[in-house]
Structure formats: structure tokens, C-alpha cells
């Protein structure tokens, strides 16, 4: 039986939220590796649901149909930072959920409130299981610091300027941050964040949440900044 969301989370939980391209996934994974903790990519869970809806021809404009699909979702997600494999019904969708067709449709499923309630219960269970197994877990998304794990001892909002986020995603997707590549990336970053911010607040830190602005940090600097916050909380 899934744990009630109110149940105490096992292990030391590091909750990280932020907009697209702020470095949540890459930084969280490296922090988890360094600490020997588990890693939970909650965005991958919404992406897996979007993938499942598309493959089952579920009407993404119908919240009830999307909610029913979420109840049936045969999801398995790995919490090893070196192998965060995502499978749906036994199919490895780890790479497929990063495709543009998923990025452009994922907000439609993430915007359905009953889906978010279901995900919150599942995410708390996964966080607790990984925390119990590894002593701690780094969980990242849009509402981890506020809704999924507001009780976590470390809560961080990872931000970066729109310019920096666009350049990073553009380089990742197109191998370049020239004007054309940045423009081609804009819809994936700016428009999606706008849609996602209708259901979660991830541009301003909630009370007790530490903001880390990575605009002028390189990747290693961002990892160090997060580890410093964790170290201070554990001292
Ligand atoms: N501080 C940083 N400086 C430069 N590049 C970064 C930094 N953090 C992440 N990146 C790079 O930016 C891209 C997007 O990071 P990612 O972790 O996927 O962000 P998010 O999960 O917030 O969308 C990746 O290619 C990553 O390697
Ligand atoms: N806790 C979460 C995590 C992600 N989401 C939504 C918002 C995003 O558009 C999608 C995909 O998230 P993901 O973190 O993979 O997206 P980015 O890699 O940051 O671009 O899921 C959410 O609503 N709540």
C-alpha cells in the first residue's frame, strides 16, 4: 500500500526545484553520486505519463482521460544516479521521454491536478524507499520543496537567467548557442515554464528554501554550491 503523503520520509532528503535548464537534473545527479545517495527525477515521471498517453492514444485535452491513464501507468523508475532508467510496461523509455514530441506535450499532463496528487503519493514513496536504501536521496522537479517534500531538511531553488538557461539547452539539443539554435529552443524552455507555472511555483523560493543562482557558475561550481548547503545542514 502506498504511504500516505503525511508519513515521515526515510533518509536525508535534498529537495531541489527550478525552471527548465537551471541544471536540476545534471547537478542533482552529481550531488547524489558524491553523497552516495539515491536520485529521483520527478520530471521523468510526468514525461513517462506523456509518453504513455501518446502511445495509448489518450486525448491530452481531456483531464479525466489523462487521470485514468495515470492510474493505469505501469511505471518503473530507477533511483541509482548512474542508471536512472525509466520503463513503462517493460519498455525502456529513458531516451524516448527526452524527445521534442514529449517535451511539447508534457505540460498538458502535468497540469492535471488529480494527476499531480497521484504523483505526489508515488514520489513520496519512491523518495522514502531510496532514502531508506541509500541513507539519503536527492529529488528534483518543480514542486518538491513546496508540495512533495516540504519537510525535507534541505530545500533548494536552483535558478539561472533565461539567457543562461536558453544557451545551455540550446547547446545540449543543437550543439550550439547561436541565434537560430536559441530561438529553436525558446518554445521548449520559456513557453513550457509558463505553462508549468500555472500549477507550481518554481520561480520564487518559498519560506525556508535556499536560492542558488547558477547563471554565472559552471557545472562544478553549481554542484559545489549545493553540496555546501547540504554540508551546512548536516553539520
Ligand atoms: N551551472 C551550469 N553551467 C553550465 N551548464 C550547466 C550548468 N548546469 C547544467 N548545465 C548544463 O545545462 C544543460 C541543462 O541542464 P539540466 O540539468 O538538464 O537542467 P534541468 O534539469 O534544470 O532542465 C545540461 O547540458 C547541463 O550539462
Ligand atoms: N515535480 C515536477 C517535475 C516536473 N514537472 C513537469 C514540468 C515539466 O514541463 C515536465 C518535465 O520536467 P523536466 O524536469 O524533465 O523538464 P526539464 O528537463 O527541466 O525541461 O514535468 C512538474 O510539473 N512537476
Automatic annotation (TrEMBL):
Query: Could you tell me where this protein is found in the cell?
Result: Cytoplasm
One biological process GO term for this chain?
Answer: pyrimidine nucleotide metabolic process
Q: What is this protein called?
A: Cytidylate kinase
What HAMAP family does the entry give? Cytidyl_kinase_type1
Alphabetical UniProt keywords: ATP-binding, Cytoplasm, Kinase, Nucleotide-binding, Transferase
Q: Which domain of life is it from?
A: Bacteria
For the keyword Disulfide bond, the answer is no
Q: Gene that codes for this?
A: cmk
UniProt key word Nucleotide-binding: yes
Q: What is the scientific name of the source organism?
A: Humibacillus xanthopallidus
GO molecular function: any one?
Answer: ATP binding
